[in-house]
Amino acid sequence: EAGVTQFPSHSVIEKGQTVTLRCDPISGHDNLYWYRRVMGKEIKFLLHFVKESKQDESGMPNNRFLAERTGGTYSTLKVQPAELEDSGVYFCASSHPSVDTQYFGPGTRLTVL
Amino acid sequence: LAKTTQPISMDSYEGQEVNITCSHNNIATNDYITWYQQFPSQGPRFIIQGYKTKVTNEVASLFIPADRKSSTLSLPRVSLSDTAVYYCLVGGRGVNTGFQKLVFGTGTRLLVSP
């Protein structure tokens, strides 16, 4: 069974540009989560989808971040415009609706110059 | 979600048993205790989860005392490949929504030497 995949693995952009991160959860996992770790900090929750609905977006830092999960399959996280402090590693995780174990992807390392 | 406290780092040698203790004094009645492992450049990986007493799987054991204010992750006979960061997390299960958001602390950096 394929695990959670994320694309790209690494993205380098300039301040003010737009970047879109993609996450493909494990097949059948209705729950999809986004987390991130900025430099020197702990991994922080961003938001949680149940299928295509946002269940909890309390961790989204500001309105420059937009997450979508159309059709309830893969999800995208867009940062527009990117700022220097957005640099870090963005993790996606998914879980089955009846099992609470979250499975993480390898992460996308975002560098904003 | 309850906050956890665990040692910043630990050192061990191959073949030894490693016990990492986590404090969670404010754990709620419906909170579970979950441990994750993370290698460099990878996402966290689920190791074990428990509610009370002892849980064992092929990778580790988790010991939880009756008051549940702490827990101990036990790794038997560690190898060099067990060098990683280990996170202790507590949280409740969401009904029909899967596990709630995970709250990560600083974790324990385990270094296994030859």
Observed structural traits:
heterodimer; A: 113 residues; four-stranded antiparallel sheet; 50% strand; B: 114 residues; mainly beta; Immunoglobulin-like; 0% helix
At CATH level 2, the architecture of chain B is Sandwich
What's the SSE pattern of chain B?
Answer: EEEEEEEEEE
Q: Low-confidence parts of chain A, pLDDT < 50 over ≥5 residues?
A: none
Helical residue percent band of chain A: under 10%
Span from first to last CA of chain B?
38 Å
Q: What is the CA–CA distance across the termini of chain A?
A: 37 Å
Question: Per CATH, what is the topology of chain A?
Answer: Immunoglobulin-like
Count of DSSP helices of chain B?
0
Q: Could you characterize what this model shows?
A:
The complex is a heterodimer of chains A (113) and B (114). Chain A is mainly beta. In chain A, 0% of the residues lie in helices and 50% in strands. Chain A contains no helices and 11 strands. In chain A, strand 9 and strand 10 (103-104) form a beta hairpin. Chain B has a single domain (9-109), classed as Immunoglobulins (Immunoglobulin-like, Sandwich), CATH 2.60.40. Helix content of chain B is 0%, strand content 51%. Chain B has no helices and 10 strands. In chain B, strands 1, 3, 4, 8, 9 and 10 form a 6-stranded mixed beta sheet that branches. Chain B has a 4-stranded antiparallel beta sheet with strand order 2-7-6-5, with no helix packed on it. The A-B interface holds A 4, 30-31, 33, 35, 42-45, 48, 50, 55-56, 58-59, 91, 93, 95-107 and B 32, 41-46, 49, 87, 93-94, 96-106.
